[in-house]
Amino acid sequence: MREIWPADNLVKLEADIRAADDRSLVERIERLRFLEEEFGPPAHMGLVGGIGALLAFDELKSSFLCGNYMATIFLCQTFVEHSLAGPFALAGEDEHVEKGMSSLIDVSLALNSISPTLAARLHVLREMRNPYTHPRILQKKPSLLDRVIKTTKDPFSMAEADATEAIRIVVDFLREGCPSWAPSAHGHPKKS
Q1: What Cα–Cα distance (Å) separates residue 156 from each residue in 25, 63, 124, 147, 192?
Q2: Mind listing the pLDDT tens digit for each residue in 38-70?
Q3: What mean pLDDT is predicted for residues 186-191?
Q4: How is the chain split into domains, by residue range?
C-alpha cells in the first residue's frame, strides 16, 4: 500500500488556487499577448511530426502561459525534432528518424528541406536545451550556472528569456514551412 499525505479540504484548495491565479494574472496576460502575437489565429497547416509533435505544440503554449519555462524549452525542441523526423518516417527512411536533433537538422539542411538560416536557429534551440537537460561540469561545457554568471541574470529570468526565444524559433520553423502563415501575408504590418 502506498503512503500519501493528507490534503487540505476542497474549499482551502480552491482558495489557494484562486489566490495563486490572482497573483499571477498580470504576468499570464502578458505571456498570452506574446503567444497571440507569435502564433496568431489558428492556422490550417499539416504537421508531420505525429502525436509527439501534436502534444508538444499544444503543451508548449500552455506551459509558457503558466510560467513553466524549462518545460517550454523542452517542448519546443520536442516539437521541432518530431516535425523534422516526420518526413523521414513517412518516407521509410528510418536511419534518420532516431539519430537525434543535430543530425536531423544537418540532413534536412543537406536535402534543402530547411534554409541555412533556419538550420542555425534550430541548432540554437538544441544548444539552449542541452544544459537544461544534461548536467555540466563548470567551464567544460556551457552550464546554466556559467550563463547566469555571464549574463548577471537570475536563473528564472534566464529561463524565461530562453523559453521566449525557443517559441520564436518554433514560429520561424513553422513560417518557413508555411510562408503564408505570417501576419504580413494577411495584410498586417511588420513589427520589429
Answers
A1: 18, 14, 19, 12, 25
A2: 998 777 767 788 899 999 999 999 999 999 999
A3: 71
A4: 48-176
Sign of CA dihedral 87, 91, 96, 97: positive
Q: What is the DSSP letter of 1?
A: -
AA letter at 21: D
Contacts of 147 (CB under 8 A, 6+ apart): 131, 153, 158
Query: May I ask the CATH architecture of the domain 48-176?
Result: Up-down Bundle (1.20)
DSSP character for 141? S
CA distances from 83 to 16, 56, 59, 100, 147 (A): 39, 10, 15, 12, 29
Residue 134 DSSP label: S
List of residues 6+ apart from 76 with CB closer than 8 A? 56, 60, 125, 129, 163, 166, 167, 169, 170
Please enumerate in sequence order all residues whose Cβ is within 8 A of that of 122, keeping only pairs 6 or more positions apart, or say none.
80, 84, 101, 105, 114, 169, 173
List, for residues 123-162, the tens digit of each pLDDT value.
999 999 988 888 877 667 778 888 888 877 789 999 999 9
Contact 90, 48 (CB under 8 A): yes
